[in-house]
Amino acid sequence: MELRQWLLLGALLILVILWIWARCTPKAKNARLRRRVRRGGFVHWTRFEENWIIDEKERTGCKYNDFPGCYVIMIFDKPVRFKRFYGWENIYIGQSINVCQRVHNHFNGKGKGDVYADIKYGKEAYVRIVPVKAKRLNDMETSLIEAFSATDSYNKTKGGAKITKIK
Fold first, then answer.
1. Which residues are CB-neighbours of 106 under 8 A, at least 6 positions away?
2. For the chain, which has fewer Cβ within 10 Å, the N-terminal or C-terminal residue?
3. How far apart are alpha carbons 90 and 152 in whole angstroms?
4. What are the distances in angstroms from CA 46 to CA 39, 99, 141, 160?
5. Whole-angstrom Cα distance, residue 86 to residue 103?
6. CA-CA distance, 4 to 71, in Å (whole number)?
7. 87 to each of 13, 35, 43, 80, 91, how far by Cα in Å?
8. Using 50, 70 and 90 to split pLDDT, how confident is the model at 163?
């Protein structure tokens, strides 16, 4: 091979290495996680509560279909338009083996007091539930808190609660 071909191959190799490195940085991983969560779709807190119990006899609704997962609750001054979940006023991220019950508790004054106060005083709250296997709850919660910089808002810790027993 000629020198020009070696230089071209070397430049291409450097570009590939830089691209891989850029995709693996914490900043890039956080950006991908934020995009994935936003794409999944947030639900207004009133819609979540409307679906809490749809039919008690048939046992349908969120109350009867609980599962392990993490949740992201975003608080806004005004309703979100065109699914643009950016520029939130406050954010709270958590996890639970029974994630729907936990979110329901937040919206009804039995969870994070700041979230309930925001709702009570007319702020717009949206929730996104991320189903996660019970063994991965701590890792996902920690990643979400970091990705959304939630310790700058309502989360006081970096996440990852100690679970004594997972079934």
1. 73, 92, 94, 112, 115, 116
2. C
3. 9
4. 20, 17, 24, 28
5. 21
6. 54
7. 39, 14, 17, 10, 10
8. low
Please tell me the distance from the alpha carbon of residue 90 to that of residue 5, in angstroms, as a whole number. Answer: 54
- 73 contacts: CB under 8 Å, gap ≥ 6: 45, 91, 92, 93, 94, 103, 106, 112, 115, 125, 126, 127
Query: Could you give the CA distance from residue 76 to residue 91 in angstroms, rounded to a whole number?
Result: 9
Instruction: Kindly report, residue by residue over 27-69, the tens digit of the pLDDT.
Output: 888 888 888 898 878 999 999 999 998 888 888 888 998 999 9
CA distance 141 to 160: 6
Cα–Cα dist 52/61, whole Å: 5
Give which of 6, 15, 43 is closest to 128, Cα–Cα: 43
pTM given for the model: 0.81
Question: What number of other Cβ atoms are within 10 A of residue 34's Cβ?
Answer: 17
Our measurement of the distance from residue 120's CA atom to the centroid of its chain's CA atoms, rounded to an integer in Å, reads 23
